[in-house]
Amino acid sequence: ILSPESPKYLLEINNEQKAIEASNKLSGKQEGMKNIEQIKTEIAAARTQPKVALKDMWIVKKYRKPLIILCVLMAAQQLSGVNAIIYYSTQIFKTAKLSEEEAQLATIGVGVVNVVTTIAAVFLVDVLGRKPLLIIGFGGMTIDLIFILICLYFVVRRKRTVRVSRWILICNINYLVSQFDFFGLN
């Protein structure tokens, strides 16, 4: 509503004059005309591509397998519970018998690990590729969720307050967040 229409959109609806004006306003007259020509080329190339309907993705065999893999991976990412673990991390740490201050510091540590591993994953995608990071992240998350479950079982159900299990829990939650960053950026 408040943002101006893009030159690409204006060209797509066949309003070339307004597209030229918008492009000139954004980039200057000389650069604006180059942008318009580039956008026209992109639009022409896009129109020559065959259209794939949503139903074709399920019917055509070459699209079906990648679509199923994509759906499973997206569902696994959402159902991993990492958002709940991050949201309730302070409470989880308090349950593990950390003091209020220790729990808050551990939660800050989770945030720092999240930022650092997100930045690292952005660069690692170019170096290692998506598939290895996806496998590493998914496998690491699976193993780590099992460890978190075991740690919470011993801390909550068994009422054991072994200091080692608390730090294992903190490390596991940080590891989970780092693996999610590798898994989630793919």
Automatic annotation (TrEMBL):
Chief location? membrane
Q: Which residue ranges does the record assign to the Major facilitator superfamily (MFS) profile domain? A: 1-186
Q: Which UniProt keywords apply?
A: Membrane, Sugar transport, Transmembrane, Transmembrane helix, Transport
Q: Where in the cell is it found?
A: Membrane
The UniProt transmembrane annotation reads 67-88, 108-128, 134-156
Q: Membrane topology type, per the record?
A: Multi-pass membrane protein
Recorded hits in Gene3D superfamilies, A to Z, give:
MFS general substrate transporter like domains (1.20.1250.20)
- GO molecular-function terms, A-Z: hexose transmembrane transporter activity
User: Which is one Gene Ontology cellular component term of this protein?
Assistant: membrane
Q: Name one Pfam family in it.
A: Sugar_tr
Q: What is this protein called?
A: Solute carrier family 2, facilitated glucose transporter member 2
Organism per entry: Lygus hesperus
List the top taxonomic levels of the source.
Eukaryota, Metazoa, Ecdysozoa, Arthropoda, Hexapoda
The gene it comes from is: SLC2A2_3
